[in-house]
Amino acid sequence: MSGKLSRLLWHILFLSLLAMVVSGCPALLKDDFQKGAAGDASVGGNSGNGGASGTAGDTGKDADADVNQCANCSASQTCCDNACVDLNTDEANCGSCGHGCPGTICNSGSCSNSCASGFLDCDHNVVTGCEVNAATDTDNCGSCGVKCAVGATCENGSCKCAAGSADCDGDPTNGCETDIGTDAANCGACGKSCGANEECSTGTCGCAAGFADCNSDPNDGCEVDTTSDPLHCGSCNNDCGQNSTCSAGSCGCLTGYLDCDSGTPGCETAKTDPNNCGSCGTICSGSTSLCDGTSCLATCTTGKLCGSSCVDTQTDPNNCGGCAVAVGANQECVNGTPTCLANFADCNGQAPDGCEVDTRSDATHCGTCTTACKPGAICSSSQCQCAATTPNDCGSACQECCDASQCSDANGCTTNSCVGGSCTFSAVCAGGGVCCGQQACFECCGDADCTGGKVCSGNTCVSSTCSGGTVLCNGVCVDLTNDPQNCGGCGNSCGAGRTCSTSQCTPSWVTTPTAPIGARSRTAYTWTGTNVFIWGGEDASKQLLANGARYDPAANSWSSVGTGGSPPGARELATAVWTGSTVVVWGGGDAAGAAYNSGSIYDPTTSTWKKMSITGAPPAMRAPVGVWTGSRVLFWGGLDGAGAPVAGAWLYDPGNDAWTQASKTGDPGGIAAAATGFSGTTLYIYGGQPSGSGQSSALYSYAPGTDAWTTLTGGWSSRYAAFARWDGSYFIVWGGKKKGKPNAFADGKRYDPTGDAWTAMSDTGVPSSRRVPPLRKTGWTARISSSQTLILGGLGPKAATDIRTDGAIYTSTTNTWASVKPWPSGESRLWGAGVWTGSEFVLWGGINGAAPTATGERFRP
């Protein structure tokens, strides 16, 4: 009896807590649980049909559509939002219409503490319910704690890299680092290497221009040069025949020979033939029956008489050094001696064989008779190289692998080994652990992996008993109401300078320490995963700077950026992009307005720099858009030294230090002050000023994986200098300005690529009108969570004197706005750095009034 009473009291306590906090729970990705006041059944209703009903007996008969949709509801069902549902079991309408459970199962009209299918309780917090959608959460993909690599998405509980990219080195910190669409060593999939003279295009190995795979052997790739090989001239097995040449893929005759039969390949007739003297069909007879290759003669005036032909025995391959002395295979006559053709050699010393070896492709005689390729290598273009199936040079031989680092099966739970030059993979979690999402082996992935009443916390089975209002977080019982490291939820750290009170981190804004590099504006900046990276800029005397610093929000401290190697020269308005392991700093210019087309790569591990190649690089540009695609850095836009927008896009491969210009087909051309957002696979470009004047409402997209531009459905209003960001589902565009109009806009729309359509953003609670002026003067946006976009700063209608210091957060799932208080310093921060860290927005430096500042502040939503 006491056990039943205990379970009853626990159930009542759970439901009471759930009712009190349901208004503060976030909307899940599939909108099972809508944010709203407790008991407000109209939340989540469709305004087009009158909203969800407020009582269980309301069938919504005020709309004909509802009557039609719900005409066949059974006695146990209720009509909610045009659908027949059972309020006893429906997770979206539990007990009443619109009352959704927070990822939990609806049991007898009440939300239970059991997770619904696809949802997990990863923080073990009864207040938040089953807060994780394991199908899409990149931090808990398939199981709690299974994090996807940087740039990867979680789809159906499995981590997946964006199309055209892959995590081939197994290191989640540098994300999906390989472009499998173009990488010849990983073409279409990790470890799939292209052969010799092959290139990788759209994930498929193919022969490079002028080469062909005529023996169908993948090990030697495209072994034939069809531009010059007379046996495969222009295409495989197109044999030019005897006495022929192949040039630029077309057959021709050797000097001194004619093709007189026209039906058989080859040039079978010597020009000295009296029946075809100098040309086909020219016959020598009578007193002039001899031929010297040009004319019919009575006697030979030059050369030696062999039969009826006057021949040069120094060059004639059929009479080389004397009459009827023919050269052998792959030979020509030079100075009366049979001599090997280029790329052929007589390696066996047997004259009748001629020059029997093709040194371009013979692995035992590669380039010369005495050069043999090592085991596992092939000979291509007279050079030894590792074969496609043995791509790694291990010194004494080419093998599939030299060590375990070159073996990967994309499964973090297996042990990769290199045995005898071949990759082997051990059994999954051989030590007895549990494989979580193929990312790593742990004691547990979820509670179901634990026994004896224990739960899974931090991938370890621990006791679930906590007392005094505390909950279990990573194996420790904590008070979520006042623990700054677990404020309101496990792992929710407030960060330096804040306290936790009633499960809320306060205050929202805090200051940062003064940076050691001094006051400056117009810097290059980015987030590296652990630090805010700052480089270059301009000081109070307009002196360009060539140093930088890193700010660690967790430690609330600064450290220097090294200058070893070849750092970029002093510059302002350069663009910095984090690749997952290095920072690429490109472009920028000087204080007079000139633009640069140079840059360097910074390695934070060694704190050193190396110069970037400028071969094939984009033209000089100030403040271009720069994003990491997972394998390359994409640069677009920016202004040149004359202030005109730069046309075109370029992709930089930091691993190979190589540039590729994007396709020009469909390229929108130069656009100033355009709104941009990158989804991870697609760059969206909206509005702006084409060619630097007027304004546009056009929308374009560029997909680096397919190198394709697309013109999409245009927006609702032409404008430039708008705020923009990809929020996970939509391309958000808000604010901006129209030329000749005194006011900035205070409205916006969001673009849904799945339907190629725009919808209006709510105008309730929007921030004041504002715009983002060119060259990063002010105005920042950040995707702070799935479906949430932060808009901060910007200029109002009064141009340079109307500086905004506040902002707002837009949530696309609910189409609502929440205001953000002004930053506490009140400094204008023109041309300051603004970076989202994953939990905070760090705002630093810039010009305040007439001089730059070295101060900063951090905002936590």
Number of strands: 73
The CATH superfamily of the domain at 663-822 is identified as Kelch-type beta propeller
Helix content: under 10%
Low-confidence stretches: 1-67
Overall residue-averaged pLDDT value: 85
Question: Count of DSSP helices?
Answer: 2
Find the structural class using helix and strand composition: mainly beta
The main sheet orders its strands as: 46-50-49-48-47
- Report the CATH C-level class of the domain at 663-822: Mainly Beta
- Most strands sheet: 5 strands, mixed
Classify the beta-strand content into a percent band. Answer: 25-35%
**Rg result:** 36 Å
Write the layout of secondary structure elements.
Layout: H1 2-21, H2 64-69, E1 78-80, E2 83-85, E3 104-107, E4 110-115, E5 119-120, E6 132-133, E7 153-155, E8 158-160, E9 165-166, E10 178-179, E11 198-201, E12 204-207, E13 211-212, E14 224-225, E15 244-247, E16 250-253, E17 257-258, E18 269-270, E19 290-291, E20 296-297, E21 304-306, E22 309-311, E23 331-334, E24 337-340, E25 344-345, E26 357-358, E27 377-380, E28 383-386, E29 392-393, E30 398-399, E31 416-419, E32 422-425, E33 434-436, E34 440-442, E35 455-457, E36 460-462, E37 471-473, E38 476-478, E39 499-501, E40 504-506, E41 509-512, E42 524-527, E43 532-535, E44 548-552, E45 557-560, E46 564-565, E47 575-578, E48 583-586, E49 599-603, E50 608-611, E51 625-628, E52 633-636, E53 649-653, E54 658-661, E55 671-672, E56 675-678, E57 683-686, E58 689-690, E59 699-703, E60 708-712, E61 723-726, E62 731-734, E63 748-752, E64 757-760, E65 780-785, E66 788-792, E67 807-811, E68 816-820, E69 833-836, E70 841-844, E71 847-848, E72 851-852, E73 856-859
Parallel strand pairs: 46-50
Antiparallel strand pairs: 1-2, 3-4, 5-6, 7-8, 9-10, 11-12, 13-14, 15-16, 17-18, 19-20, 21-22, 23-24, 25-26, 27-28, 29-30, 31-32, 33-34, 35-36, 37-38, 39-40, 41-73, 42-43, 43-44, 44-45, 47-48, 48-49, 49-50, 51-52, 52-53, 53-54, 55-58, 56-57, 57-59, 59-60, 61-62, 62-63, 63-64, 65-66, 66-67, 67-68, ...
